[in-house]
Amino acid sequence: MRLRKSNQRKRFNTSTVLDLSDGEQSTTVNQSRQSSDEEFVVDTRRQQPLDEDEHGADPQDSSDFEVNNGKKSESRRRKNRRSWAVSNATKSFSKVEPYPTDPSQKWTRTYVGPVKRWTRLLHLVDYWFGEMDNRREIFNGFMNLWFNFQLVPPKLTLGSEQLEMARNGWMPDNFAQDMEDKFRSWYLRYLSMANTPQTSTLIDETKALRWFLPQAKSDMGVLLGHVSDQKEYRIKQGESIPFSDYGIPIEVEGDDEVRSGGWLLDVGGIVLSMGWAPIKGEVDQFLAMATIPYSDQAYYKNLDDMPKGSDMKEGTIQIWRFKAEKDNKGVLRPARSSPKLAQALCFHWGRALRMQWCPVPLSIEDNIALVAALCGDGTLRVIKVNLGAGKDSEGTFEELQDPMVTIRPPKEHTVEINCFTWCNMNRIAVALSDGSVVLWSLSPCLPLMRHPVHGSPIMDIVSGYPSNSFIVATMPMGGMFTLTDLNRPTAEKTYHGNPVVSLQPNTLVWNDHLRGFASIWPTSFPGTSTISFVHSRVFPLSRHICTVEGQTMCLAFGKCHPYLLAGSSDGSVWALNVLRKMSSHRDKTHKLKIFQHEYCAPRPSGAATDNHEQSSQRGTCRIIHGFLPQVNIHPLGVRVAKESRVKRAKKAKGKEKANEADDGPASDDTEREDDENFTMVPGPITIHEPLTRVTALSWNPNAEFGWWAAAAMGSGLVRIMDLGIEDDEEKSHEQRGQPGSFGPEDGTAGDPDGLNDEDEMEEDSDADINMTLDD
């Protein structure tokens, strides 16, 4: 029997185990397996002659080793290729290859799966929403409704099919009513089982302003209007300035011809968290804010002047009421009347750090709503809110003694609650500082499970309510962005291979229409911040959404549409259509800067001015609007394209200089000019005032008001905006049938470039190329 040619150069251990007993034989085999270098070794000291090949060649014949021009023949190299591969494989058994540190070697962070950047829309819908039988029909409605509106959502008339589609999304038509009935029955069961109900006491406004609500001792100057003709307005805490659809302040209250487009509200403190109350019907809207005084985040030269923990026990959640009116087209718009402080929830549990409304909406006749607040003492509390209590012009101030439900962290050393998310009306997922997630039941109040997810504190946790209620995404302070199914936490878990460092909360959001998450992403330049989108079914694959100037401070995804708001540290708020961005990689998309906020701190009156006198002065703000849309492209691609252009220009100039060698040495001023103009840095880094940043963003979750948005700034101003676009019905029906719509039988449906399947397959012949995850 002839051996393989690849085995003729191998030698094995000379010891034999044939004459040993079973016990001795197993011991010898185990010892030989522990020393892998002795079990399989290639003998490089001597080379045994090769056996005769199939042509009957003599292995001793020197003609097999003839050299042509100092190189082996091509046939000889092909025959020895297998032996070379065996030699390399043998070396890999003896040592562990080091982890690649070269940034260009990214094969350790690649995605290998069915979804690529160039995947056609029909296949993308199948991969993303494969569990739904009518997925293409539902997604076709989304495309017809939102694809042609690139920047902000359209306004939908009451009672229209588009409004119901925006409200339900992927859920059945009776889902909202079923959840409302379950919420009502659950609340009645809780009242019958509750041992310690919520207790509170009504207090007067003077006591609330003195002890609980942040106080601004002076007014603030605000520059508003067109950028070429801005005027200064003075605004005090609790006051508001209405503005039109064009962002111009409405100075004459009796001018009914100018339609209101929102308000600019002064809350007198820094808003850390904000959210609209989910309510059904054509009723007034409520916006809750967790505010803190300016002194909590002020700069102190002397650390002894900083507020102590005993001085920060008072906290509050402000709930503001905004009235709406119906126009002649059946669209709800902001009313001309000023917003009112409907209710103030005051407590001695520390500052309110985060707050969230229960996502299940109720009708205004139920007169109740639930809001969860994470307080400064590290305890999460669920509070019942009576939304009908502030129907009169004067708001109610309520001092809470005992909440409805109290969720405390485990009694372990240095373990605290960092963030939380609602899964439904009776389940809350709590993320701890040790990297674990705890699922709590509200009635009865007890923990159901605790699962370790990260090795560092969790900064953000978001649930996929309503379609994927118990699928939660967690963003650690340092580590891997992870997705966990709380139904099977030990089995269903995945993560993104690109490590992130997150120190900023409110930068992880969920959109139910797209079934995915938007979050901040690592970037190589500190002057800009990248926002990425990951789908829940293809979680390890990320897609670039947009890049904003400065650092991303907060994000907001629409509950009834796929539009994203991003707030930056430079005071800018950006908006874009994520559905259009995700539907095709060839189509050019845009992003819009809604407004730019800038804060200027007051000058100290003298060198002897202390911190107390500075706190009484609030400074001046300026808000600029009316920006043109910008092309939404990846900055890395722009820099690479610019680098290639510069290199081609240098080569062309080098050829010209070589042809002009007779004129003497050429000047290198042009090359130096190109080197100065070209840079890998997008632009200079600007450090803004801390109160310039955008602290919180929120879309209205109610379908009738889905295009209302709120943006809170560090200066204490909150801008409530009606961002919807009024759509002409005749024109919209013509436009909505073009690039965005597709049918289940259409082969080229949803492909903006108009390619069919064969052309797409022929063009994307490199579909098996791996994609790096940090693109």
Explain what you see.
- The chain has 775 residues and is of the alpha+beta class.
- It has a domain at 409-503.
- 19% of the residues lie in helices and 32% in strands.
- The protein has 14 helices and 47 strands.
- The strands form 13 sheets. Strands 7, 8, 38, 39, 40, 41, 42 and 43 form an 8-stranded mixed beta sheet that branches.
- Strand 45 and strand 46 form a beta hairpin.
- 36% of the residues are buried.
- The model is unreliable at 12-93, 607-616, 670-681 and 729-775 (pLDDT under 50).
Overview features:
14 helices, six-stranded mixed β-sheet, globular, alpha+beta, eight-stranded mixed β-sheet, 32% strand, 775 residues, disordered C terminus, 47 strands
Unreliably modeled segments: 12-93, 607-616, 670-681, 729-775
Output the radius of gyration.
Answer: 33 Å
Mean pLDDT, rounded to whole units? 79
Largest sheet: 8 strands, mixed
- Silhouette: globular
Q: How does the helix and strand content classify structurally?
A: alpha+beta
What's the total count of β strands? 47
Count of alpha/pi helices? 14
Helix and strand topology:
Layout: E1 10-11, H1 22-34, H2 36-39, E2 41-42, E3 67-68, E4 71-72, H3 74-94, E5 110-111, H4 121-128, H5 135-146, H6 161-168, H7 175-193, E6 199-203, H8 205-211, E7 220-226, E8 229-235, E9 240-244, E10 260-266, E11 270-276, E12 279-280, E13 285-292, E14 315-322, E15 324-326, E16 332-334, E17 340-347, E18 352-357, E19 362-363, E20 369-375, E21 380-385, E22 396-402, E23 405-407, E24 417-424, E25 427-432, E26 436-441, E27 446-452, E28 458-464, E29 468-476, E30 478-479, E31 482-485, E32 493-495, E33 500-501, E34 508-511, E35 516-521, E36 528-535, E37 542-549, E38 552-557, E39 563-568, E40 572-577, H9 578-583, E41 590-600, H10 611-615, E42 620-625, E43 630-631, H11 635-659, H12 669-677, E44 694-699, E45 708-713, E46 717-722, H13 729-735, H14 757-763, E47 771-772
Parallel strand pairs: 7-42, 12-19, 17-22
Antiparallel strand pairs: 1-2, 3-4, 5-47, 6-22, 7-8, 9-10, 10-46, 11-13, 13-14, 14-17, 15-16, 18-20, 20-21, 21-23, 24-25, 25-26, 26-27, 28-29, 29-31, 30-33, 31-32, 34-35, 35-36, 36-37, 38-39, 39-40, 40-41, 41-42, 41-43, 44-45, 45-46
